[in-house]
Design brief:
Elements: H1 34-48, H2 50-57, H3 61-70, H4 72-83
């Protein structure tokens, strides 16, 4: 142990500093790509299957196909990206 960091006036048994000394940082939200979100949504839909998705959502399988064709998942991806929500499998 040749080097040890110095702690300034620890306030508890672990040596942590009080929150008043913490640095507040404003972080920019990550760039979220709606195309990537749409890809995740469609890949996940393909993996669970349109039939099981339709049954779970209480819609017909043809409605799921129509939604894919009409860009429903594209619009959903754009909304999620705007709101800063990422989709992950």
């Amino acid at each position: 142990m040749a080097y040890q960091a110095k702690r300034h006036q620890p306030n508890n048994h672990r040596g942590y500093l009080p929150m008043e000394n913490a640095i507040a940082r404003k972080l920019d939200p990550p760039e979220i790509n709606p195309i990537e979100i749409e890809s995740v949504l469609l890949n996940r839909l393909a993996s669970v299957g349109q039939k099981s998705y339709a049954e779970h959502m209480g819609i017909s399988e043809s409605t799921v196909s129509r939604r894919k064709a009409e860009g429903y998942f594209c619009n959903m991806a754009k909304e999620l990206a705007f709101l800063g929500i990422q989709a992950a499998p």
